[in-house]
Design a protein that fits this description.
By secondary structure, the chain is an alpha+beta fold. The chain has one domain: Rossmann fold. It has 7 helices and 4 strands, in the order H-H-E-H-E-H-E-E-H-H-H. Helix 2 packs parallel to helix 3 and helix 5 crosses helix 6.
Length: 150
């Protein structure tokens, strides 16, 4: 654990209560917990959501360092297309539970048009409208199920 805390820049804060940590520190602590068992595959589900740009950058810097130094494979889910574009070797774009496109970011962008962004590619495959299906009752039922399973 000490090695993981050191790697993620948390060694000096190890004796503090987690409730005193910033959002970026909590995200790094979550990474440290995941790395204790030295996995070959690290699954990150929106690890930078709600973080400021400095904290986001710090998390990604450490993940990239880990990936480069250990050969770690990282499976990432994110809504931030610029993160996916910069960090991923391959992407799979999903919308409404269906796989819409798979490939390298450069390949997907080039197939759409010159100068396209990954966000342009996402919009091409998913449309521009906001999803308005479901109701508040559906959200409550999902939360109850998650609590029961958690």
């Amino acid at each position: 654990m000490e090695e993981a805390l050191e790697l993620l820049g948390l060694a000096e804060a190890a004796d503090r209560l987690v409730s005193t940590y910033s959002g970026g520190m909590v995200r790094r602590l979550e990474l440290a917990q995941a790395l204790v068992s030295r996995p070959r595959l690290l699954i990150l589900d929106e690890p930078t959501i709600g973080l400021d740009p400095v904290a986001r950058s710090g998390v990604w810097e450490r993940v990239c360092d880990l990936k480069a130094s250990s050969g770690l494979t990282v499976l990432l889910t994110t809504h931030y297309m610029e993160e996916a574009d910069q960090l991923c070797d391959r992407v799979a774009l999903m919308h409404r539970g269906r796989l819409r496109a798979v490939g390298t970011t450069s390949g997907l962008k080039a197939a759409l048009r010159a100068g396209a962004s990954l966000e342009d590619v996402f919009r091409h495959y998913t449309g521009d409208s906001l999803e308005e299906s479901g109701a508040f009752r559906d959200v409550r039922a999902t939360r109850r199920t998650a609590i029961r399973l958690g």
